[in-house]
Amino acid sequence: MTSRTTLHLSINGREHALALEPRVTLLDALRDHLGLTGTKKGCDQGQCGACTVHVDGRRVLACLTLAAQAEGQAVTTIEGLFEPEGRLHPVQAAFLEQDAFQCGYCTPGQIMSAIACIREGHARSDDEIREYMSGNLCRCGAYPHIVAAVRQAAEMAS
Ligand code: FES
């Protein structure tokens, strides 16, 4: 039996102490141990982007990150985007206005990537948005709407 260690994780501004095996990924810690199922498991091998979260403001794939690696850093998930008075984050609002999803499974990862893409200054053209969002796959093929949503949110942020 593998031993567990207590990890102290900061998720969406709240501190959590979790007894986990060292091999547990950040994705499984979020979904299975904290009930934060907004972060999706698609491929579980770093290829689809559905599990994208922010760690200290940088986008990471939670399926390729051990929970232990996130200790001492600020993790933000889709559940952590709420604005005062329950308003949507501007990128969430842009996804709604541009109809940038169909089944919605990839949407949390798309939105977390889009926020980082804009913050990184990589949303200055549609080509740039396509390149820097290319790690997030959409099986429904909503890409033109996703690009439009990122462009709209980037314009609002500038
Ligand atoms: Fe992490 Fe697909 S579930 S990249």
TrEMBL record:
Record PROSITE patterns: 2FE2S_FER_1 (PS00197), 2FE2S_FER_2 (PS51085)
Keyword Oxidoreductase in record: yes
All copies of domain 2Fe-2S ferredoxin-type, residue ranges: 5-81
Stored Pfam families: Fer2 (PF00111), Fer2_2 (PF01799)
Keyword list, A-Z: Iron, Metal-binding, Oxidoreductase
PANTHER family for the chain: OXIDOREDUCTASE WITH IRON-SULFUR SUBUNIT, OXIDOREDUCTASE, IRON-SULPHUR BINDING SUBUNIT-RELATED-RELATED
Protein name as annotated: Xanthine dehydrogenase YagT iron-sulfur-binding subunit
